C-alpha cells in the first residue's frame, strides 16, 4: 500500500511540474522575438482595482485585436472558402504598415515614446483606409466597432504623447489596388491580415509597458530578454 501511494504521489508531482513548465514557455512575437505574453492575454491586471493608463490601453488593444481577427476570419471564409490555410496567399498579399524591429517595441531596444509613436502612425493608416473594409458586405456591427475602437486607442495614445498628429512620423498612403474583383478580395484580406498582426504586437508592447510601469512602483521589472534568448 505505501508503495502504491508513493507512486501516485510521484505521478501527481511530475504532472504538476510538467504543467508549470508548459505555462512558462514564452510566446513568439510576430516581429521575431520572444515575448512575455501573447496578444490574446492580459496578465497582472486586476480589473477590481484602479487601472493605470497602460493597463487601460492593453484592454482596449486586446478587444480591438479580437474584433479585427474575427473580421479577418469572416472575410477569408467568405471570399476564399476553397482554401483553409491563409499561408497560401502570402504571395498575393499587398504590403501595408506593420510594426518593425527598429520601432522600439522589442525588449532589446524598447522605447516607450518611439514605440507609441509608431503604433500611432500605423493605426492612423488603418483608420484612414478603413473605407476599403466598410465597402465590403461584412458584419456591420463589427466593422463599426473596430472603427470606434481604433479611434479610442489613437486618442488614448495621443493624449499620452501630448503631441499633435502633425508631429508624428506620417505613413504615406497611396491608392490601393482594386482594379478587379480578385484584387479587391486580396486587398481586403491583406488589410485585415496585417492589421491583426499589428494588433498582436501592439498588445504585447502595451502589456510590457504596463508591467514596466507597475514594476517601477515596486522594485523594477526585468525585460523579457533578461530571461530568454533573443531571436531576430
From TrEMBL:
Give residue spans, biased composition: Basic and acidic residues. Answer: 223-232
Q: Has UniProt tagged this entry with the keyword Signal? A: yes
Which residue ranges does the record annotate as region Disordered?
Answer: 209-232
Q: Which Gene Ontology molecular function entries are recorded, alphabetically?
A: interleukin-6 receptor binding
One GO CC term of this entry? extracellular space
- Residues of the signal peptide: 1-24
- A Pfam family annotated for this chain is IL6
The UniProt keyword set, sorted, is: Acute phase, Signal
Which Gene Ontology terms describe the biological processes this protein takes part in? acute-phase response; cell differentiation
Instruction: Determine the domain of life of the protein's source.
Output: Eukaryota
Extent of Basic residues compositional bias:
210-222
Indicate the family of this protein.
Answer: Belongs to the IL-6 superfamily.
The function of this protein is: Cytokine with a wide variety of biological functions in immunity, tissue regeneration, and metabolism. Binds to IL6R, then the complex associates to the signaling subunit IL6ST/gp130 to trigger the intracellular IL6-signaling pathway. The interaction with the membrane-bound IL6R and IL6ST stimulates 'classic signaling', whereas the binding of IL6 and soluble IL6R to IL6ST stimulates 'trans-signaling'. Alternatively, 'cluster signaling' occurs when membrane-bound IL6:IL6R complexes on transmitter cells activate IL6ST receptors on neighboring receiver cells.
Protein's name according to its UniProt entry: Interleukin-6
The source organism is: Culter alburnus (Topmouth culter)
